[in-house]
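Q: I'm building a small set of examples for a reading group on sequence design. Run inverse folding on the following structure and report the sequence directly after it, with nothing in between.
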């Protein structure tokens, strides 16, 4: 089986109707058979005509596959929801709410809500499992997200930017967090909470990271960017996390133009999800569906 991301035509063939979307949601959330909450029997559930529900073959108790999902109590069709989710999984640089508005013919408010709810579920599925561990390399770095300073003369260009710290396991997952500053007392707890003990940690020369080697069995190595060093003599580098920053900024600057700090964590979750599932793009959409807990 190919692990390539599905094409638009494959998506359309898989979900040609509203009923096919509802059937798929029922399967991924409940399976072909499950124990009925009313009669307790392992039962097959049959579609109820005219409703978004399925009835137990024994007692007739109904379950609603859309309950507890963004699709519940919405007039937007499941096909539209599935299509936007497909776009989120297929695009490398993200999906703008204005583009969803144009393609679906919905209001901007509806498109914005759809996009943000999908980002939230991407973050829920991706989770927060720590990265690294014995024998693993974790690159730690921080970056600034935001536009240029305006209306303040020659002020600090970083004043209106958000700061994000990232922890990237070499050839593995990435974890990001929005932080208020780059001080040691701010950055160290994020490293301790998200990087497993005995990891080999690579950072740049920022002084806030100087003491990492004194905790949790970390082996701390640095690369000196101020001296134009990007790969140290022993292979020390943060090029992996910087590659993720580049992808993130291409998406924000090119697709979204501007992202407020209030909602930045949702956009980070979206890009984390795609990055962490980059080796199994054919499973992105199905696994995102499973994130809708029962």
């Amino acid at each position: 089986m190919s692990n390539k991301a599905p094409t638009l035509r494959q998506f359309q063939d898989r979900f040609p109707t509203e009923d096919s979307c509802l059937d798929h949601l029922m399967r991924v959330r409940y399976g072909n058979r499950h124990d009925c909450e009313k009669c307790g029997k392992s039962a097959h559930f049959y579609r109820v005509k005219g409703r978004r529900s399925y009835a137990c073959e024994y007692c007739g108790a109904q379950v609603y596959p859309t309950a507890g999902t963004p699709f519940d109590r919405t007039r937007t069709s499941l096909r539209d929801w599935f299509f936007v989710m497909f776009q989120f999984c297929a695009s490398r640089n993200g999906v703008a709410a204005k583009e969803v508005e144009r393609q679906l013919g919905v209001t901007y408010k509806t498109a914005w809500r759809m996009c943000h709810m999908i980002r939230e579920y991407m973050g829920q599925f991706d989770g927060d499992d720590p990265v690294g561990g014995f024998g693993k390399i974790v690159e730690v770095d921080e970056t600034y997200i935001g536009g240029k300073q305006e209306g303040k003369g020659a002020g600090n260009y970083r004043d209106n930017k958000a700061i994000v710290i990232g922890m990237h396991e070499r050839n593995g997952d990435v974890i990001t967090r929005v932080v208020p500053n780059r001080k040691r007392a701010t950055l160290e707890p994020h490293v301790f909470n998200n990087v497993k003990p005995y990891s080999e940690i690579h950072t740049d020369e920022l002084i806030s990271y100087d003491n990492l080697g004194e905790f949790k069995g970390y082996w701390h190595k640095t690369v000196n960017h101020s001296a134009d060093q990007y790969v140290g003599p022993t292979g020390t580098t943060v090029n992996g996390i910087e590659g993720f920053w580049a992808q993130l900024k291409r998406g924000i600057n090119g697709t979204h133009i501007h992202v407020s700090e209030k909602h930045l964590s949702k956009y980070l979750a979206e890009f984390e999800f795609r990055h962490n599932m980059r080796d199994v793009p054919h499973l992105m959409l199905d696994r995102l569906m499973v994130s809708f807990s029962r």
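The first helix runs from residue 8 to 14.
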